[in-house]
Every structure is written in structure tokens, then in C-alpha cells.
Queue: 2 jobs
Job 1
Amino acid sequence: MGIRIQEQPSQSPADGSQPKSKKKVLNRIVENRMIDKLSYEEYRDRVREVYDGTQGSLLLTCSRLSLHMQLGERLFRHRKFDLRGAKRILDVGSGAGQIASHLLKYADRDASITCFDLSLAMVHRAIRRLRSNLPNFLVADLSRLPFADGSFDCVTCGYVLEHLPDPRLGLTELARVLMPGGRMLLLTTEDNFGGALTSALWRCRTYNRNELQQVCHEVGLLWKQELWFTAMHRFLRAGGICVEIVKAS
């Protein structure tokens, strides 16, 4: 299977960044702050290095040990996020193919699936693991997507948005390529202690749930429902931010 590499011009975030959330002192100490200290281009290169290297090679193992792989499948198997009827699916930051494997299993047989990642090494890992000629893989940057407006009726974005200094960089692009009425499954790291630990390990930022919902609404992405892996996750408010989103018509 061939891989297309989309070269993108550099793009820096607008200077008017959103206000910083008030976080608990311990969370601020633990959380990795590299994303605030570098330009977007420099930070993007650091992230690519992380996922190109040894840490990226362990991503699938980490997903399984943390149960994110197994719990994520429950969202599709129990139709909490229902893939039926989706015909053009985009998997954002496909990593080692964790979500893509669920898409191959639970999406309609005639659905087309496009997967991209910032890291070429991760794309190769996903192709080797999935052993399927159905997904179309490419290397691209979430802040500059190489797709026409309204190209997809369904998007899955699992733990990718936290690698952007401002969520608008990615959410605006996702809103653009998603057709009106299209649906998105968004999972991202929340600004709690568990999220701070994730940030320290993967050099990402965290998001405040209410602030992220507001930004989504500003770009026309409306939160339909908050999802939880299990009843215990709901009770403990654990597992990060997981929502089904619909693009305004």
C-alpha cells in the first residue's frame, strides 16, 4: 500500500490564545509545559520525534496496558458511538491503528476509511499491524488538512488534539472537512491529575472540559453527548474527555 506524504507550509497559532485554566497546584507541577515554551513548528517537530522513536513504538502496548484499547472498542461495539450509516470516515492521528482497527470491525462494509498521522513511522506501524488494504493512509498535519471541504461524514479523533497549543487550530480544520450534520468522536486529555500524568509522559497539554466545549461551539461543532467508558468512569469523572459531536447544519 502506498503512503502519501502531504508537505504543509508552516503555520503559527494566533497570538490571541485562550485564557489559561485555573489548575490545581499539583497538576501544574506534573504537567509537561513544553508546548507553552516552543513555537508551534518547534513543538510539532518534537512531537514527531517522540512518536517516530522508541516511545512511539510502545504506543500500542501502552494503549493496551492502560485499557484504552479495550475500553475504546466498547464505544463502538455497544453503539455508544454508532458507525452505522457512515460512508466516508476520517481517523485523525491514527497512531498504531488503535481506533482504525475498531473502524474496520464495526463500520459498514462499504465505508471508506482514511487514516493520517504526523509521524511517518507511526503510519508504517499501523499498516503493518492492521494488514488491511481498506484504509487509505497518509502523513499530514491536523492544523493543515489536505482534504476538500465537507469530505467526510464521520471523524474519529483520539488523543490528538492535546498536541496543539490552541484547539482552534485543529477544530477549525475538522469542522471544515466534516460535512454539515456529520458526526465526530473526540477523545482528549482532561485537566485533572490523570491528565497531568499523561501530559508528562507524552509531552502534550490538557484541556478544561467546559472551555473546550465552548471552543467547539464557536467553530460549529456541537456536543451531542458526553460518553464514558464505564459507569465507574462516569462516577469518578475519569478517562478524559470523550464526546460525540455533530457539525451544525
Job 2
Amino acid sequence: MANRKLNYLIIIAIAAVFLWFFFKSVNWNETWQYLKQVKPAYMVLTLLLVPLHLLTRSIRWKFLLKPLKSELKLGNAFAANTIGFTVTLIFPGRVGELVRPVYLAQKEKLSPGYLIGTIVVERAFDIFVMCFLLGFFLLIRPFYGSFLQARPEAYINLFFWGKVGLGLSGLLFLVILGIYMLKDRASKVISYLTRPFPDKISNKIMTFGLEFIEGLRFFHSFFRLIGYFFLSMMVWLGICFFYWVFFLAYDLKVPFVLSIPYVFLTMVGASIPTPGMAGGFDYFSKLGFTSIYGLDPNLAVGMTIVIHSLQILMTCTLGYVILWKNGLSLFQVKKLSEGKN
């Protein structure tokens, strides 16, 4: 309990630091004047596009799980994603990442360990694909120079975070592939590490570990790997499209491809495990608006508050509706991440 409280305090402190930098030197009168200039039609379209990534992620997840259960219901995958993201937005520590696979496992009567393995695969591909898109953006820099005159430090930041992300995704790929290719040895390592625990606990850990390793059998097929890569591209290009439409709501007219660096930076910020992505998302969003597109900091703050609020509002509303229809509460599904029923 003490460790959990300490973790929460650290997370809150991190969020507070980022929020301090985000709100630093904001002129709220100017911010409000900027926000009133919104184009209603584009804002309504932005609102309707919030669930798009939940749908494309669900299609990708269904594809990944096809060898295990070809008749898996897309609706259950969508519900699991929506509830998982709702939990992540409300509670610290990204516990929704565990809620998603456990919820779907219960709905579809599948192995939780297997599905948690697919979440690891999903996260690795998310990082890899966004690094791929960022690399594409940086490579075509000579062609968009007339559209976008970003500050030099913006490119330095993008190159730095691109290298970090690519390095982490590459390392994660190697670990995942190594665990699967050497699964017999990995099983022995898990068995060795669980020896100090009582038999009941060690057996549970061993069973979960073996299910997790089995969940990585996705790598058996090269063509499925390519298919999953293109579905991951669909997920992230859809997210870029969502933000690009939002840009138009505030008359920020840039070619679609130029939404990529902003989305990459917000992905970095959203990966910080604070409740509701508070602080990390906001700081990196403001950084993207000001350093890449040269927006006034007050407008950048206002736009960030609006887009952040819309995502939380729509996602949590959908999540609560699904929970209500299933007769569940938010705290009940949160307990799924703790291995409780």
C-alpha cells in the first residue's frame, strides 16, 4: 500500500511539473479570444471522429486474434478498447492496458495471458509505425519547405525523440522475438524465478507466463506480420486525420502529412502514465503547435485544452455507456487489472 501511494505521488508530481510548463505565461484573455474563432462544422466533425481510433484498433486486434478465434466479435473488441482507454484516462499507471485484454478474454472466453501478449505486440507496433511515419516526414522535408517553416530546434527534438522511439521499439521487438524463438529457455527462466514463491502463486505465474509466450505466436507468419503493419498504419493515419480535421476547426491549414510530427509528439506525451494524460500530453501538444507550426503560445494552450477535453469527454462517455449496458461499474473493471473478479 505504501509503495502504491508513493507511485501515485510521483505520478502526480510529474503531471504537476508538465502542467506548470504548459500553463506558464498564459494570457487567458488572448486564449479565450482565439478559442471563439472556431469553425463549428469542423469541430462537430472532430467530435464525431474521436472514436475512430477505437474502431481501427479493434479491427487490428480482431485480425491479430483471428488464428485463435476467427469468429471473434468486433463489438466486444471495441467495448474492451473503449473501457480500457476510459480506465486509463481516469486512473494513473495506464492500468487500462491490462483491463482491455482481461475484459475481452472474459467476453470471448479466451486466455488472459495470451491477450496480454497481444497488447505488448500492439504497443511495439504503435511505436514502430509512428517512428516510420516520422522518418517519412523528415525524409520529404525538401518538398514541404514552402508550406512549413518550423524552427530548427523543432527538427532537433523530432530527430531526438524519433531515435529514442525507434531504439525502444527495436529493443522491444528483439525481446518479443527472442522470448518466442527461445520459448523453452524462457519457460525455464520463469520457472527458476518463481521458485521462492509458494506453489499456488508460482503455478499461477508459470501458467500466465506460458500463456503470454504462446500469445506471441503471431510471429509465425511473415504475411500476417505485414498485414498487421498496414493495419497499424491505418490506425495512426486515422489518428493523424482526426487531428488534421481539428486543425481546420481553428483555421490551421497545413497539408495532411504535416500533421505527423505533431501526432508523434503527442504520442510521446500521452505515454507518460498520468491520469487523463494530464501534463505530458498538454506540454508536448503545446510544444508541437508552437515549435512546428509557429502558433502563438496562447492559441496553442487553448487548442490543446479543447482537443484534450474532447477526447476525454467522448471516450469516457462511450465507456460509461458500455459499462452501463453490461451492468458494470468503473471500479469493477479496474479490478480486472489486479486479477480480481
